[in-house]
Amino acid sequence: MVLKLYGLMTACTQLVYCILKEKEIPFEVVLVDMVGTAEHKSPAYLEKQPFGQVPYIDDDGFILYESRAICQYIEAKYPKSGNSLLPTDLQGLARFQQMAYAEAHHFYTPALAAVRESIYKPLYFKLPCNSEVYKQNIAELDTKLAVYDKILSKQKYIAGDVLTLADLFHLPYGMLIGWTGSDLMDKYPNVSRWFHELEERPSWKATLEYAKPMLPTKTEVLRQQVPELFPSA
Questions:
Q1: Residue 166 CB partners (closer than 8 Å, separation 6+)
Q2: Does residue 228 carry a pLDDT above 60?
Q3: Which of 55, 83, 131, 233 has the most CB atoms in a 10 Å sphere around its CB?
Q4: How far apart are CA 109 and CA 53, in angstroms?
Q5: Which of 105, 4, 11 is nearest to 67 (CA)?
Q6: Cα 115 vs. chain centroid, distance in angstroms?
Q7: Entry pTM
Q8: What domains appear along the chain, each with residue ranges and CATH number?
Q9: Cα–Cα dist 87/67, whole Å
């Protein structure tokens, strides 16, 4: 049975879609209605994903949720398919784990908080953006990306000189930071070089092309921002 990816084509589902494309694995997307019927909160859905979030996968009856866990499962199951995304040596794997944790704690946490304030609240919940919260998280992310820039001055990718899942984990929210009106991903030269190279990967372009009919455009998102933050939008 072909692997099924359940989700709405938002950030975390985009990540899993991208990894499946990298690995060249046949799969089927099953769209979850999170707006009209709140399908993700239904008893049937909660049997599969008890936190009521997206995505999850059904791999011939094996159910798995949490996007980073799904990505590592896919790589572990199909190591020779498509592009290799995890090191096989002990030290390389340790460096991957190191930077995967760094992404989760030092990048994703402030990036999500900034995106939640500037995009999710006004666009999906019709709530005002708290500009101070947004600015605080952008400032925190700035300090973390300064460290990233030093790391990337010595190596091509975030965990060494070979692409890993740790790099690709940054794609959805790295893109969305730009959609908030911030140019932070271009502020540091090594970060900019690294991130824009990731954005050019065919897997990510295919992900955005598939998601395009289901999501607002960057311009539509920027129009939702508070005027004092984005006077040019």
A1: 96, 99, 100, 102, 103, 157, 158, 159
A2: no
A3: 55
A4: 17
A5: 11
A6: 12
A7: 0.92
A8: 3-78 (3.40.30.10), 90-200 (1.20.1050.10)
A9: 19
Place of tokens 């979850």: 32
The closest of 183, 214, 220 to 14, measured between CA atoms, is 214
- Distance in angstroms (rounded) separating the CA atoms of residues 149 and 197: 15
| Contact of 176 with 225, CB cutoff 8 Å | no
Residue holding tokens 């599969």? Answer: 48
| Inter-CA distances, 194 with 3, 27, 206, 209, 214, Å | 31, 28, 19, 21, 28
Residue-wise pLDDT tens digits, 108-165: 999 999 999 999 998 888 898 899 999 999 999 999 999 999 999 999 999 999 999 9
**Is 7 in a helix, a strand, or coil?**
strand
